[in-house]
């Protein structure tokens, strides 16, 4: 799921700005399973000021969680067709 808009910002309808993460693996081959994670709550203005000092590096992974309501909506959209089909089968 794409949580960024075309301009590089977060999609307001689906992204949770309180749950932004940067994941960085170790460059040392001996530390293959070593990952460092940073968390950003973009709803907090003080955190945003500190975030401007954070430098992304090649191979960093930026993960933005979706809003809980987005997950709920996806669940409902997956269940609803099955309920409709069950109702239609019962009528026939």
From TrEMBL:
Keyword annotations: Plasmid
Protein name per the record: Polysaccharide export outer membrane protein
Organism: Celeribacter baekdonensis
């Amino acid at each position: 799921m794409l949580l960024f808009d075309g301009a590089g910002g977060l999609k307001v309808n689906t992204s949770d700005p309180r749950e932004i993460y940067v994941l960085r693996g170790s460059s040392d081959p001996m530390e293959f399973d070593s990952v460092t994670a940073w968390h950003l709550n973009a709803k907090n203005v003080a955190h945003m000021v500190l975030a401007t000092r954070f430098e992304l590096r090649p191979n960093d992974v930026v993960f933005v969680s979706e809003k809980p309501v987005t997950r709920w909506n996806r669940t409902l959209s997956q269940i609803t067709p099955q309920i409709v089909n069950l109702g239609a089968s019962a009528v026939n």
